[in-house]
């Protein structure tokens, strides 16, 4: 078991013929990911990395029964690529691309509403279920199948958390998800916690939050209301940032008020979530939960 | 990306928002000349064009600029020349510019507009609901952050969809909140629709009109204006991209932006190089926990060009405030060996005079470590973020 992706996930790569896509899809194929097709407009009919390329997602779905997309298209093309994937009723889109314009994202969020498609990202390292499927750019060599679910709002910090689960007697990971570093993202902490709670393989959750938005507060509130709870260890980045710093988006201060990283940690603690002050303390907390692993 | 007040007003007026008549001037003579075309008898407003709020509350560093602030009401034509001479070429300090202030290269000459009351309006994206949101405060505020901090209840937030025009119901709600009569209804509708249209058609990330003035006949006029644009969308607005004023940005920040990296300065003495915003925050938190602070950080993101990475590292190496460098790279997209090669290239060009601590993990980690071991540079290689922070702090303390 795992969440969102596994060895049966049939992956189509949008933008498969690009340089970065080629580099990472090859690695994903070597990893055993079931990449069944690619999409690049005007390159339909070709073969790339041993999989057929189609002009549209719809064709790729019809011919190869793909149910998830990993997207490497350039930022200006993301909106139309999303539209295609949503209209083709894929279960999941993982958008690696960074730099999607805000206005496009407003429209994408509106398209997602009421659709059956879940979006991870944009600007995410992706999702990986160790030994089964890698949709994204994770350095696969640090991942090992195991019992910790990881969800992060900060791309590179995700790897730090993965390493921490390895340091804790190789507890390993069930599924690792980067939600995306952008101002607006698809699924959030609550969606992922909900899935991890149901997943038998996942025994505990590591959650990495950061300044900006109220994703952490919302997750804390959700967790508090659950009857059955798997343990969560959380880290929140941004304590040292001055108030109103642009890394948190100027508009955030006005729409959400003066929220500090400490406020987020307090919200987690009140909800019964274990909070660490340094990311390198995560493995110690994991060992407390699993002393005999 | 930010632009100047006069540029923002010009854009907003194209979308139907009323602004006072005004013209830009680069010399005192120009100021005098345009003043007559702006208003025959005055009074006039002379406004220093620097990208900062609270200009009226600022002061000039130079004695020749007089004691008044960066926004001045002028009654006679003779005073226009005198005040323009004072302001142009001087340095204006405001609560938002820091002590260094900003150089005034141009002033905006505007017809003074008599109003009976003012209010604040802003437009931003609420990220949690992914909705364009209108913000209103009944009075003008020089710093909206102050209201957020101390009187959040004074802000009315009205969610706007992507539809073209604000509903009559929302207009009524806004009028009532601002204590305006129905005489202002049409003007308010035009103002809000104009802001929304500007926001969406020009790919703004934030618009503030502060203050909006209410004239005796109920008409609304934008007395000041600020627009920030979404840098990720500038590729489709070549005309707006041209408005960027490089003098407004820190030189090192500008340099980093050239390579598509981000660079930020703080008050401490440790230079940090990372790949990722979250990682930057985590490293700074780690230093703060140990009683230290970052002097600056450079985020090289998913950089794949060795020369650009070397140039980025040079920005940190040549910053005089930096007493030690901490490099923490978690390679995914980015390959660690490129950073190692960049360090060597940068050090051979500008020299390495401060302790340098690295921590590599992920893609091509071992290759990167080997490269540095063979470089003969005095680099300290560590295996975790905490270790790296401890090592750089220890090295700085020892070199003191």
Explain this structure:
- The complex is a heterodimer of chains A (293) and B (400).
- Chain A has 293 residues and is α/β, with parallel strands linked by helices.
- Chain A is built from 10 helices and 14 strands.
- In chain A, the strands form 2 sheets. Chain A has a 7-stranded mixed β-sheet with strand order 3-4-2-1-5-6-7, sandwiched between helices. A 7-stranded mixed β-sheet of chain A has the order 9-8-11-10-12-13-14, sandwiched between helices.
- The two termini of chain A are 19 Å apart.
- In chain B, strands 8, 9, 10, 11, 12 and 13 form a 6-stranded antiparallel β-sheet that branches.
- In chain B, helix 2 crosses helix 3 and helix 10 crosses helix 11 (336-350).
- Chain B has helices spanning 5-14, 28-38, 77-87, 144-150, 168-178, 185-201, 238-241, 251-258, 277-289, 306-317, 336-350, 365-373, 385-399; strands spanning 22-25, 44-48, 59-60, 71-74, 91-93, 102-103, 107-111, 117-126, 131-137, 155-160, 204-214, 220-222, 226-229, 262-265, 270-274, 294-299, 324-331, 356-362, 379-382.
- Chain B is built from 13 helices and 19 strands.
- Helices cover 36% and strands 25% of the residues of chain B.
- By secondary structure, chain B is α+β, with helices and mostly antiparallel strands.
- In chain B, strand 11 and strand 12 form a beta hairpin.
- Chain B is elongated.
- Chains A and B meet through helix 4, helix 5 and helix 8 of A and strand 8, strand 9, helix 4 and helix 9 of B.
Notable characteristics:
heterodimer; A: 293 residues; alpha/beta; seven-stranded mixed beta sheet; 10 helices; globular; B: 400 residues; alpha+beta; six-stranded antiparallel beta sheet; six-stranded mixed beta sheet; 19 strands; 36% helix
Contiguous uncertain segments of 5+ residues of chain A: none
Q: What's the alpha carbon Rg of chain A, rounded to whole Å?
A: 19 Å
* Biggest interface, CB < 8 A: A-B, 66 and 60 residues
Strand tally of chain A:
14
Shape of chain A: globular
Distance between the first and last residues' Cα of chain A: 19 Å
Order of helices and strands of chain A: EHEEEHEHEHEEEEHEHEHEHHEH
Uncertain runs of chain B are: none
Helix content of chain A: 25-40%
Helical stretch tally of chain A = 10
Anisotropy-based shape of chain B: elongated
Radius of gyration of chain B: 25 Å
Question: Could you give the order of strands across the largest sheet of chain A?
Answer: 3-4-2-1-5-6-7
Q: How much strand of chain B? A: 25-35%
Mean pLDDT of chain A: 94
Regarding quaternary structure, how should these chains be classified? heterodimer
Largest sheet of chain B: 6 strands, antiparallel
How much helical structure, as a percent, in the residues of chain B?
Answer: 25-40%
């Amino acid at each position: 078991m795992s969440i969102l992706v596994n060895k049966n996930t049939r992956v189509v790569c949008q933008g498969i013929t690009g340089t970065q896509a080629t580099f990472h899809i090859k690695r994903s194929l070597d990893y055993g990911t079931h990449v069944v097709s690619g999409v690049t407009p005007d390159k339909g009919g070709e073969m790339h990395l041993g999989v057929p390329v189609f002009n549209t997602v719809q064709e790729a779905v019809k011919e190869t029964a793909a149910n998830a997309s990993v997207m490497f298209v350039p930022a200006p093309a993301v909106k139309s690529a999303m539209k295609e994937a949503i209209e083709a009723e894929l279960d999941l889109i993982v958008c690696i691309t960074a730099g999607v314009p805000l206005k496009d994202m407003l429209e994408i969020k509106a398209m997602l509403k009421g659709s059956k498609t879940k979006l991870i990202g944009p600007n995410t390292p992706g999702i990986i279920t160790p030994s089964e499927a890698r949709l994204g750019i994770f350095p696969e060599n640090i991942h090992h199948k195991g019992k910790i679910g990881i969800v992060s709002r900060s791309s590179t910090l995700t790897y730090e958390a993965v390493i921490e689960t390895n340091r804790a007697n190789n507890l390993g990971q069930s599924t690792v998800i980067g939600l995306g570093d952008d101002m607006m993202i698809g699924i959030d902490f609550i969606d992922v916690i909900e899935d991890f709670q149901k997943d038998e393989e996942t025994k505990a959750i590591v959650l990495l939050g950061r300044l900006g938005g109220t994703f952490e507060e919302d997750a804390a509130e959700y967790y508090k209301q659950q009857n059955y709870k798997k343990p969560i260890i959380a880290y929140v980045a941004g304590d040292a940032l001055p108030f109103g710093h642009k890394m948190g988006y100027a508009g955030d201060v006005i729409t959400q008020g003066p929220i500090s990283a400490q406020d987020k940690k307090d919200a987690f603690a009140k909800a019964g979530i274990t909070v660490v002050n340094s990311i390198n303390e995560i493995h110690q907390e994991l060992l407390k939960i699993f002393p005999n692993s | 990306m930010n632009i100047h007040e006069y540029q923002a007003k010009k854009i907003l007026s194209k979308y139907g928002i009323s602004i006072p008549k005004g013209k830009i001037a680069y010399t005192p003579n120009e100021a005098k000349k345009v003043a007559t075309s702006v208003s025959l008898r005055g009074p006039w407003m002379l406004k220093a064009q620097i990208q900062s709020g609270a200009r009226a509350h600022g002061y000039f560093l130079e004695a020749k600029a007089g004691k008044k602030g960066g926004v001045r009401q002028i009654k006679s034509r003779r005073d226009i020349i005198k005040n323009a001479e004072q302001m142009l070429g001087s340095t204006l300090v405001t609560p938002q510019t820091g002590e260094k202030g900003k150089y005034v290269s141009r002033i905006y000459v505007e017809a003074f507009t008599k109003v009976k009351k003012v209010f604040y309006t802003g437009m931003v994206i609420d990220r949690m609901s992914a909705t364009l949101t209108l913000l209103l405060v009944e009075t003008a505020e020089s710093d909206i952050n102050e209201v957020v901090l101390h009187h959040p209840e004074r802000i009315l937030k009205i969610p706007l969809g992507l539809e073209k025009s604000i509903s009559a119901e929302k207009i009524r709600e806004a009028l009532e909140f601002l204590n305006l009569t129905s005489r202002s209804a049409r003007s308010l509708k035009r103002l809000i629709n104009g802001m929304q249209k500007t926001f969406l058609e020009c790919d703004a990330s934030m618009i503030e009109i502060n203050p909006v003035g209410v004239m005796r006949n109920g008409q609304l006029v934008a007395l000041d204006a600020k627009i920030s644009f979404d840098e990720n969308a500038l590729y489709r607005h070549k005309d707006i991209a041209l408005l960027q004023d490089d003098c407004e940005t820190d030189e090192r920040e500008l340099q980093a932006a050239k390579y598509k990296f981000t660079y930020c300065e703080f008050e401490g003495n440790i230079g940090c190089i990372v790949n990722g915003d979250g990682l930057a925050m985590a490293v700074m938190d780690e230093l703060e926990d140990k009683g230290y602070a970052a002097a600056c950080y450079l985020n090289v993101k998913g950089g794949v060009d060795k020369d650009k990475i070397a140039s980025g590292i040079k920005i940190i190496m040549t910053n005089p405030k930096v007493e030690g460098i901490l490099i923490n790279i978690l390679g995914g997209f980015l390959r660690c060996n490129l950073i190692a090669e960049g360090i060597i290239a940068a050090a051979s060009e500008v020299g390495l005079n401060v302790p340098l601590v690295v921590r590599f993990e992920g893609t091509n980690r071992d290759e990167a470590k080997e490269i540095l071991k063979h470089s003969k540079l005095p680099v300290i290689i560590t295996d975790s973020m905490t270790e790296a922070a401890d090592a750089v702090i220890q090295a700085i303390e020892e070199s003191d």
